[in-house]
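In the previous chapter we treated chains in isolation. Here, by contrast, the input contains two separate entities that must be folded as one system, with a combined length of 649 residues.
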Amino acid sequence: MQIVVAGLSHKTAELALREKLSLFSQEEIARKIKDSPIADVVFLSTCNRFEVYACGFKDGADGPEVLLRFFEGLIGKNPDKEDLYLYSGLEAVEHLLKVASGLDSLVVGETEILGQVKEAYEWAKKEGFTGKIGNILFQRALFVGKKVRSETGISVGQTSVASVAVELAQSIFGRLSESSVLVLGAGQMAELMVRHLSSQKTQKIMVSNRTRDRAETLAQNFKASVLPWENRAEALQEVDIVLASTGAPEAVLTKEMVEKSLKNRRGRSLFMVDIAMPRDIEEAVHTLEHVYLYRLEDLEHIVAKNLEGRASEIQKAKEIIDSKTAEMDEWLKALKEGRELSFKHSNRPKMRRIEASQNKGVVNEK
Amino acid sequence: MSLELITIKMTLAVYSAATALSFVYLAYKDEKWNRWMLNLLGIGIALHLLSFAFRIHSFWQISENRYFLPINTFFGALSYLALAVCAIFFIIESRHRLGILGAFVLPWASLSLGVAVFVASPEISGLVPALQSYWINIHPMVLMSAYAAFGNAFGVGLALLVQEHQIKSRKPIALCYRLPSIEELDNLNYRIIAAAFPILTIGIIMGGVWAENAWGRFWGWDPKETWALITALVYAGYLHMRYLMGLRGKKAIYVSMVGFACVVFTFAGVNFLSELHGYLSKG
């Protein structure tokens, strides 16, 4: 019994190398594993990391050595020491818990990784790759990943400009199902924002661009309508959210235009997002009542704050991970002695002790 | 200490604890605080009703008081007001899941009951003949229920000002994402006032009818009457601005807050001016 993880991630390896590994299909990797002495195994492949977690090795092979050879086979040469990391025993357990909790992610606390760990584990289990230890280890990792996110602020606050904008829109209008959106410009940023907004089932999206063709392309993708560029000021009377990201050299919405539209808005709030450089919307509109103008740097500032907030929760998350790693250690030690402890899925780190008789075969694997 | 006083003090303690929890919930996003706040509020309301029952029991020991409600004193009125604020908040919460607004509403209930317990006298005396009328069970109750609703609207208005300020500042803190949206708060404030305004108006008219019976005139510009009318006019102004002129947001909230200031003055301040309506003059 020896838990070993070998892998490389955005922290250690260049994109080119990570891409090379992500090109292997699940089946290819699975075949290579079957041909190797690795047993009780889960591998995790995302755009940011490629990791192999092994909890057993056939014929008493040396775990770290086997995994090193395995990566050599994948990469086609001896992997650089800096690219690859290798942990065994409790360090490997701790690493998995950190990964599942989002502590090792590019954006601390992001939740996607937990889903990826779950998928990787479920696939491995279905294909019969996992054994007793691997099953317990990954079930615990998923549990800890959820626990850390619910008990610490590590996943609190949006971390992208687009999602912060959507959250602010919700703080102004509540559910966005009755809100309509005016999009000025049809570039990449506009598209990203619209994608986020339309996932909130906004009532209506209108796209307006100086060149109509590009507006039409964007509109088609999101079932939006195209608004003639000249009519943009009039449209202010009826929309709730304005996204501006044109390449215009000067403001395309002036304070005068916005002020005029307010007369017919009956006091309903107007949320304006200007992510253009140079600015599309005159800064002075923010002084108008009911108008909330957020510029790119305002959104970025909120993102930075949220990331800071997450970072300040890392210590708390680590404490949970430490205690759960210690629990896993106890479980592994007991297993060696032929006993099986059972984890209680509660907040208390206590464990019920249950004598197990039929698992001795697994314990003596190595 | 009588059973009434014991239970009313317990009620005050429970309301205060619920208020404290509402602030904890505001600071920490954990649903358990909200659940506890609502549980305590429910217990507080039950205790409060029980205390009222004890008060009615001793009030009716005096034969001329029989079957009239004991809200002729400052104590009785403040206590009923606190109960109504909590009950209305409880109803709004259960319909809209807005426990987060507890911190903006419950302090007023605790304050009202606190003044009743620590300042006003809980003494019970016989009703003067002028007050021995079935109207005493209706007219003040109706008005104070409207006042309690306005108290809730005031809390919602405060939350709106906080939220508006947050978003205008461009540097919203985490609380911003937990409070209801500007539009939701604005609508809620409007709906509470729109519901309470007719109740206020009916209460004032009922007072006129009672005055006609008791004092022989419908309206006499007694300070309480005058201020009740001013209150009604301010809220009518708010509804007019809001509904006909489409004036919303901060300005509308300020007007509704002026209305609430009038409520507080009509309820408490005027007692020192009015001979006929003063709790203190026992008129």
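Chain A has two domains: 4-156+313-343+350-363, 161-307. The interface with chain B takes residues 156-157, 167-168, 170-174, 265-269, 286, 289-290, 292, 294, 298, 301-302, 305, 309 of chain A (CB under 8 Å). Compare these points with the single-chain example from earlier in the chapter.
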